[in-house]
Amino acid sequence: MTNGNELIESENPMHPARLICELCRNFYTHGWVTGTGGGISIRDRENGLIFLAPSGVQKERIQPDNIFVMRYKDQEYLRTPTDLKPSACTPLFLAAYTIRDAGACIHTHSQSAVLCSLLFDKVFEISNIEQIKAMPNVTRPGHMKYSDRLVIPIIENTEKEEELEGALRQAIKEYPGTTAVIVRRHGIYVWGETVWKAKVYNEAIDYLLELGVKMKQMGIPTVKN
Ligand SMILES: CSCCC(=O)C(=O)COP(=O)(O)O
Ligand SMILES: [Zn+2]
């Protein structure tokens, strides 16, 4: 019987437990995980493990010792730090892993995502912007073109984070080309095949959401026909 500490102890800065801490600090500087909201989970495909941040803590102060580890195949916790609860986003992260075979999933409380959820109805749409080329095609290899239309579904918020799971699962299935779901008046979930792809998609999407808000303010359509 182990306490699972061997799963998070590593000198390697690329170890998922260390990366979660580093990325949460990075996201904090963007205002994406302030006031305990938001977070990130990373899946280690080689070892069949999922790494999760604790719930309700200052995400920019997390240490590897605070990280939960779950076995992917039966979703059993192999490491549970005392006096902490796993992220309330865990069922949503698991949806990205099981439905899309993602390698990491990011949840932010980005103000641009919240504003877009108030300016757009069922989906956020944008086209003919160079930054779109950072986004994947998802249903086929390669990246989107400058003139492609990026469509991100918007689901309604719920009182508890975990209650979003059903709507998020449905949106992922209804929009096979999406790599993100916006939650109205709340934030966004973004995932990718690897942690680095998820990070790039989250940055590109946030840029496009911020731009979308400004374009709407100026009366410029976000989609060019
Ligand atoms: C002010 S945070 C409210 C809960 C929430 O939306 C959230 O993302 C928190 O997730 P956690 O990982 O801290 O359970
Ligand atoms: Zn949240």
Task: Write a structural description.
- By secondary structure, the protein is an alpha+beta fold.
- It has a single domain, classed as L-fuculose-1-phosphate Aldolase (3-Layer(aba) Sandwich), CATH 3.40.225.
- 30% of the residues lie in helices and 20% in strands.
- It contains five helices and nine strands.
- The chain has a nine-stranded mixed β-sheet with strand order 4-3-2-1-5-9-8-7-6, sandwiched between helices.
- Helix 2 runs parallel beside helix 4.
- The longest helix is centred in the C-terminal third of the chain and has 23 residues.
- The chain is globular and about 60 Å long.
- The mean pLDDT is 97.
- Zinc ion (ZN) binds next to loops.
- GO terms for molecular function: methylthioribulose 1-phosphate dehydratase activity; zinc ion binding.
- Its EC number is 4.2.1.109.
- It comes from Dekkera bruxellensis.
Name its key features:
binds ligand L4RZE5RM, alpha+beta, globular, binds zinc ion, single chain, 20% strand
Strand order within the widest beta sheet: 4-3-2-1-5-9-8-7-6
Q: In CATH, what is the homologous superfamily? A: Class II aldolase/adducin N-terminal domain
Distinct compounds present: the ligand CSCCC(=O)C(=O)COP(=O)(O)O, zinc ion
Tell how many strands the DSSP assignment holds: 9
Can you tell me the CATH topology? L-fuculose-1-phosphate Aldolase
Low-confidence stretches: none
Radius of gyration: 17 Å
Percent of residues in helices comes to 25-40%
Cofactor: Zn(2+)
GO cellular component, one term: cytoplasm
Function: Catalyzes the dehydration of methylthioribulose-1-phosphate (MTRu-1-P) into 2,3-diketo-5-methylthiopentyl-1-phosphate (DK-MTP-1-P).
Keywords: Amino-acid biosynthesis, Cytoplasm, Lyase, Metal-binding, Methionine biosynthesis, Zinc
